[in-house]
Amino acid sequence: MNVSKHQQALKLIATIAAAASLAITGCKKDEVEKMNPTEATAATETTARQFTLTADAYGHLTINNSNNYYKPGDVINLKGTFKAVYILNLSGSATAPITIKNPTGTVTTIGNPSWAGGSYAEAIQFSNCHYIKFGGETSKTQFLIKGSTQGTAREAYFDITLRAHTDNFEIRNITITNGGTGIWAKTDPVKNDASTWYPNSQMKNLSIHNTEISGTYNEAMYIGHTATYWDLTSGLSYYGSPSNFVSGDQYVQPIKWYNVKIYNNYVHDGGADGIQTSAIDHLEIYGNEVKNWALQHNPSHEGGILIGGRTTNTNTHDNYVHDGWGELLQFYGSGENGATHVIHNNLFRDNQAGHDGVSLRGIQNAVITISNNTIARTGGNSIRINGYNNQMIKPQIINANALIQPRMAGGGIYPNAYIYTEGGGTYKEGTGTLANVKIATVTAALVDITNYYLPKAGSPLGVAGYRKL
């Protein structure tokens, strides 16, 4: 065969191979990439471009889209098993987000259960990424994040992190097991970057839904920055009074999230708080089940659901929180700028001795409406309102709740076991159909404990308490 015919034959073989590849991946010829995008052949601009990426020989994948190789509307399929994935500077748009998922009909697994310290301390990290849809194509069984299982070393391992202004982000259809923190989403202040200081910017639009998180050493979800202030000089968080700032150090507040929705997740068997949130304006938490949290038995990390400081305009409804060590719901939210807060139609039941059901902690100038919840078999009080030395200057609204069998630790049930106040906390109860129903035992409440504590015939609850939708 002469050289010309040999070249023609090679070209024909390459064409056939490319066609076969396209049949498998569903991609155009130049859209199949298994390397850093800077090393890839430039792709033809089309709608819904498909890319299929795999790990390198070490199990790693890094995508740095600083050259804008990936475009809004693209679909990135992560195929196979990865030890660590790092994604930087990847942005879709409001009308055409970038989707990152498993290839159709396959299961994607990310993480390093054997991690015991050192580099690659995350299963997957997103840095400066925007307008992303991330997770299983249709089911949480298709996309697995497997964190470290290596004793207390796993405390430092992060399963999913969103950092450095990452926002406009959807996490969906994922199963997360083990590791330190399940989902971590915040931006730390940076000394020479004023955009990371409140109120110079904000992160917008985060949704987390249809995920299952279990076995984490720390929080299952850590959403928003918990630090009241950040010392840029030392690089450390600060929670005290400004009057005690270190002379000469520079302090700022971390930026906040705006519009966060956390719904239809199952969080269980974790070491610290279940769903922890902080520094968010407009937060909705609903339809979640949280079970068996705070296995560390650390009093500083014990909330089934935690609404943290600097959080405004919240709606926590239709959640089922049960059978954990710590408090069922902790609330530290703010009344800043006339913010409103609602805790409605949740079933909170069964925690350990000494721990309250719903605990309000020193919310200055805020009013929380607590309505139609069932709070049953708490180790401490059904509801605790702590004004922290008269910081809570407005009475809380408590209407139509079913408060059943508090202080399971034993002893008599006194009237203040249902709604307990301290530190200047005050409240106002509803009357008529808005009256709270307080019952000393589950038996007397006539509820079906096998069916979400729904009232049986003849129950004295009336219209009070939780109703499963």
Feature tags:
twelve-stranded parallel β-sheet, 469 residues, globular, 23-stranded parallel β-sheet, mainly beta, single chain, 2 helices
What does this structure look like?
- The protein is mainly beta and 469 residues long.
- It has a 23-stranded parallel sheet that branches. It has a twelve-stranded parallel sheet with strand order 2-5-8-11-13-15-21-24-27-30-33-36, with no helix packed on it. Strands 17-16-18 form a three-stranded antiparallel sheet, with no helix packed on it.
- A hairpin with a 4-residue loop joins strand 16 and strand 17.
- The longest helix has 23 residues, at 3-25.
- The protein is globular and about 65 Å long.
- The protein starts with a helix and ends in a 14-residue tail after the last strand.
- The relative contact order is 0.06.
- Secondary structure: number of strands: 40
- Largest sheet composition: 23 strands, parallel
Shape: globular
Over all CA atoms, what is the radius of gyration? Answer: 25 Å
Low-confidence stretches: 1-46
